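---------- Forwarded message ----------

FYI, see the Alpha/beta fold hydrolase record below. Original note from H. follows.
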Amino acid sequence: MFQSPDVVWLNTSPSLQCFSQPLLSYLSHHMTIASWDYSQTEDEASPLSFAVMLLHDYLQSCTQPVHLIGHSTGGLLGLFYADRYPEKVKSLTLLAVGVDAAVNWHVHYYAHLPFSSRQQILRSMAYNLFGYHAEFTNKRLTQILRQDLNSSLSPHSLFQRLCVPRSSVPVPLMVCGSLDDIVVEIDDLCGWQLYLKEGDRLWKCPEGKHFFHFFQPQLVAEQVLHFWKSLHLSNSVSSSLKI
């Protein structure tokens, strides 16, 4: 029997999903977690609107609104979905999503592609995204990033970059980022301040780079759980006042 989850993790990259597992493991001790996975081949690239449609088909089976959480493009998908179907979303948590919400590591890759080889850029990105010096580790991460370019949902290409104008999000929102992220830099992260509603949160992880939720899973989980708990308490108080 299908058990309606409390939380849905939005995974738009099969190759990068491994970096979310430590965080999801911590969260699963407190909430019922489901992972919604999207993948595509290089020959069948689809627009974000198609992913939104597929996500909605899945969430139609849930008996109540859910907490959505996603990293980078997964968070962008959550934004698109929450804008269109706010009644299905209890809250939205964004990890490594700046106020220019479409910015991901692919943007930096394509910006450098006219000037360097694909392999050189990927090796450099692997170090900048993760910080590992070991040759074997960096080589493996380079392979993972290459797979991500070919199979993940991304709105960008060498010839086109998507920009998403921002406005307030119609559901409770938490935005998390790392102070040493080279993809979503601190100014882009803090740009969310202009759009936060009462009860929304902006949290800055002290370190961890672009995949801070992998390097600091317990710390991130604690912050996210505090946010969800605050929403539950707020809803309980509102219900009591209506009696």
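H. also flagged this: The chain has nine helices and six strands.
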